[in-house]
Amino acid sequence: MNVLQLSTKVRYAARAMIELAVNYNTNPVQLNDIACKQDISVKYLEQIMAPLRARGFVRTQKGSRGGYHLAANPDNITLYDIVESVEGSIAPVSCVDNDESCERAVRCVTRSVWSNVKEAMKKELQSHTLRELANQQEKLYREHKLA
User: Fold this and answer.
1) Residue 3: phi, psi to the nearest 5?
2) With contact defined as beta carbons under 8 Å apart, do 59 and 71 qualify?
3) Which top CATH class is 8-88+130-143?
4) pLDDT (tens place) for every residue of the chain, 147 residues total
5) What does the buried/exposed string (b/e) look like for 113-134 if buried means 16 or more CB atoms within 10 Å of the residue's CB?
6) d(Cα 39, Cα 15) in Å, to the nearest integer?
């Protein structure tokens, strides 16, 4: 059965950004540390961080004490920002973003349903900040003694 779902890339990006938010206002976090803690390959994590860096959500610090930092306050970055950065549109069908992509778009009764699905997902993803998620992550780390 096919399922409408977000990509692994999005899920890993969220986990990496939450890890950076947990370490906000501390020393830079090395990709190896994020990769180890979140069970993500370093090579894949490098690819994931590129669009987040391009959007200005993360910055790098070079040198032996280098690594990654959040470039913005975790209160100002939402899960939607992360999804949009690495995945692009969350529209379930292309005609929601571009009615010219489908010759039936203007007479398609389901197009408005797909548009509502996109808006509902967007609203939910925008309602969760990295700060909120980092706080929940830290709580889980304490409860399971993983920090």
Assistant:
1) -130, 135
2) yes
3) mainly alpha
4) 666 788 999 999 999 999 999 999 888 999 999 999 999 999 999 999 999 999 999 999 888 778 999 999 999 999 999 999 999 999 988 888 887 888 887 788 888 899 999 999 999 999 999 999 999 998 988 888 765
5) ebbebbeebbeebeebbbbbbb
6) 10
Q: How far is CA 46 from the centre of its chain?
A: 14
- d(CA 61, CA 80) in angstroms, rounded, equals 25
* Separation of alpha carbons 18 and 60, rounded Å: 16
Other beta carbons within 10 Å of 55: 16
Domain boundaries, the chain: 8-88+130-143
Q: Which amino acid is located at 7 in the chain?
A: S
Ranges of H-type helices in the chain: 8-22, 31-38, 42-54, 79-87, 111-126, 130-143
| Token pair belonging to 45 | 């994590």
Tokens for 61, please give them.
Answer: 């610090």
What is the dihedral sign for C-alpha 110, 112, 117, 118? positive
